[in-house]
Every structure is written in structure tokens, then in C-alpha cells.
Amino acid sequence: MSEEPELSKVPEPEWVARLAKSRPDVVLMAPFMVYLVLLVLNSRVPANYMPVAIVIRGIGALAVVWLFRRHLPPMGESHWPLAIVVGVLVAAGWVAGQHLFNTAVEQAGLSGKWYIFKLREIDDPRVGLSAFSWRSQVLMRIAVASITVPIVEEIFWRGFLLRALINWDHFEKIPLGTFTWFSFLGTSLLSTLEHPDNWAVSILCWFAYNGLMYWKKSIGCLIITHGVTNLVLYLYVIAASDWLFW
Which of 46, 78, 125, 143 lies 20 to 30 angstroms, CA to CA, from 1? Predict the structure, then answer.
């Protein structure tokens, strides 16, 4: 008989168990909310110390996931081949879709006329940084975007909100991957708040992610898919110096 893993023997604080029992929604929202709060550090630290801010938000958000690990919904099967293929396709669609959208807005003369069509100015993030600081930022940003972000976002979006928009007060009773048009479209539209500079492709990305969740009903599969999307996207940005997506 195999021994119980040492990490599983770590006692859980009583307040965590009480909170998880009384507010299961907090368990699934907290990691993402902590990540967003720590994201404020980006505008509070000098550019050369940005890698430190990235590490803090990455580790801080994962620490909250670890804290509530016993109360997370089942992750499901990974479906690695499918997750990798979908992740690569979504990354390619994100880049191509955003460039097509920007071109269409500019040709239609809509750029800058309304906030919703305001195109973000592109700045080279390398300007003013030492070589060490830039390389560190690239490595930390890719690591956090490929590991932390998929975990906390999928727990929130597909694990919580996709069900909460069906029955907010008793979302935990809704099986993972349950479809309704309201939750499907609602989460997709709300994703634009997180990606205001890429709102059009964000909606389509959430269509794909939600569809995969309905199909495989696996948060684990979505975490891998999301991680592959972010990894491929950042590798493209570095290789092509396409800072629109930085």
C-alpha cells in the first residue's frame, strides 16, 4: 500500500474549512481576485523591477489555490492532444483576429471615435531596460501566463462563473459543463472587461473555451488549453516583436 503523500497531510486551518463550507463561491473567486489585486504592482514598481512584481502575483495567486486545494471542484481528464491543438489554434486566431479587426477599424475610419474602437498605442517594452531585466521579465511573464493565469482563470471562469450565471446562490449544485445560452454568452461578454484592448477576439476566444468545456466537462483540459494558448502567444510576440499583444 502506498503511503499518503506528505503534502496531503498538511493540516488545514479551521477558518479555511469554515469559509469553504459557508462561501464556496469565495474558494473559486479568491485566486483570480488576488491575482488581479497584485496586478496593480505593475504600475507601482520601476520598470527594471517588473520581474519581481510578476513573480509576486504569480506565486501569490497560486498560494491561494493551494490554500483552498481541498475544496476545489474535480479537475477532470487532461485530454492533452486535444488541449494542445485547441490552444495553438486559439493563439493563432487571437493574433490573426486582432490584426484583422484593427485593419477593419482603421479602414472604416472608426479608430478613436469611440472608446470601444480605440486602438492601443504600441510601445516597445524593451526601451529603457537592462538586458538582464528584460530577459528576466520575459521568462517570468511567460511562466506566470502559462501556469498561474490558466489555473486561476479557469477555476474562476469555467469552474465558477459559467455555473453561477445559471444559479448564483447554488452554483455548486450545477454540474460542470452545463450549458445555457445566458451563461455561455454572459461569460464571453464579461471577458471583454479583462481584455479591453482585445475585446473582439476575447469574445471569440471565450466561445472556444466555453465550447470545449461543454464538450469535455473538464477544468483540467481547459487549464492546459489556456496555458498552451498563452505560451504560444508569448513565444510569437517575442519571435516577431509584435508588441501589440505584450
Answer: 78
Q: How far apart are CA 101 and CA 118, in angstroms?
A: 11
The CA distance from 78 to 223, in Å, is 9
For the record, the C-alpha cell of 55 comes out as: 513573480
How many whole angstroms separate alpha carbon 174 and alpha carbon 171? 5
Average pLDDT over residues 168-196: 97
pLDDT at site 118 = 76
User: Grid coordinates in use for 186?
Assistant: 454572459
Distance between CA 237 and CA 244 in Å, rounded? 8
Cβ atoms 93, 225 nearer than 8 A: no
